[in-house]
Amino acid sequence: MSYKAWFQCASGCNERYELNEIIYNCKTCGGLLEVKHDIEKLKHRSPGSWMRLLDERYRRTKWPFGSSVWGKKEMVCPNVDNENVVSLYEGGSNLFWAERLGNIIGTEDLWIKQCGNAHTGSFKDLGMTVLVSMVKQMISEGKDIMGVACASTGDTSAALSAYCAAAGIPAIVFLPKNKVSTAQLIQPIANGALTLSLDTDFDGCMEIVQKICRENNIYLANSMNSLRIEGQKTVSIELVQQLDWEVPDVIIIPGGNLGNVTALGKGFLLMKELGMINKLPRIVCVQAAKANPLYQSYLSGFKEFKPVQAQMTLASAIQIGNPVSINKAIKMLKLFNGVVEQATEDELANAAALADKTGLFNCPHTGVALAALFKLLEKNEIKKDERIVIISTAHGLKFTDFKVKYHENKLEEVESKYANVPLELPPEYDKVNRAIIDKISEYS
Ligand SMILES: *Cc1c(COP(=O)(O)O)cnc(C)c1O
Ligand SMILES: [Zn+2]
Which residues hold their Cβ within 5 A of ligand 2, which is an ion? Predict the structure, then answer.
């Protein structure tokens, strides 16, 4: 049984291209491409048999199927030979039952999908393994590719650098100067990537990297490259798998360039088409109020879309004013009875901190999603008895500066409701003992 996938123009002209062609836009109409699969071939296996196969492979050792992306290889990217797969054992991240947080906000069936528990600390690994594997495949076929490049708000560059380093392929990353965290900046440096710090924002980096890739034999790794979406869509399959193949009612995801929300939807549509599930969840996409073009469009019933100038936000990975996947995302949200919310700096920081107090350690983008959850529960747009999954996109340890400043109450536009500062004490038993007795009663 040979499975097949190809690029197809997503703008309606349906032009097809091979996955091993260096192409990001349709040659006929310029539209973005999408990876399509031979669904009839995939349907030869029954839904039950797919589920058993995926369960058997999940987090085992047989190369490359223990990776939760490559364990779904037939549905993701069958075109890469197993020996060209560049895998760091992606996916399989914890689906955290947020019992205590749920109790605080009055909902019992709340889950946090910890996509940041990943090799480079964000969900970007899920897509990058597919893209870099395809590059290795093309190089093995004799294609002339000098390196792989991306513009990034910090996490894409970390993932690209790690996967390229593992494969021995040069990586070139374009970062907006002073707009990524120290942890994000040091990852490509440590992995030996050519790291370019440009005095502009993400949208400015994006413009230049596209031109560089067009003019040279450098492969573009941004999310207009739809290979990444194929890997990222496995998050839907994986989380349903973790819920014993039951579809949750609502999924909340932060959105910047809007590739991830598109991928989330794509995974569900595929499972439905293959008969593995029979309903779809509602999808809530959430933006920072400082960079909210999708939210603005949602307010007009998606009738119009205008890019915005993204303002500085703590949720730096979604500080994007002109999302590349806007059309795909709107199409997807319409299919999933979609809701778009926004979160202010104060809302996102306090939401992340409240959840941290229940054992999590959230990045600001997860804070954006959590803030939306709190607001939508309040407005009764999400019901208390619904099964809710929050997509946590990165590990909080990438954003320690955000956390330190939060607890010192030094973040602009944020009033830190849950600040917790260390007590400075002399090394004297009585004073230490007294301080503990005084403070422990304040624990909540
Ligand atoms: C990339 C990223 C996002 C946004 O994903 P998009 O596909 O750009 O919408 C959200 N959170 C984190 C931590 C990210 O790295
Ligand atoms: Zn086209």
Answer: 9, 11, 13, 15, 26, 28-29, 31
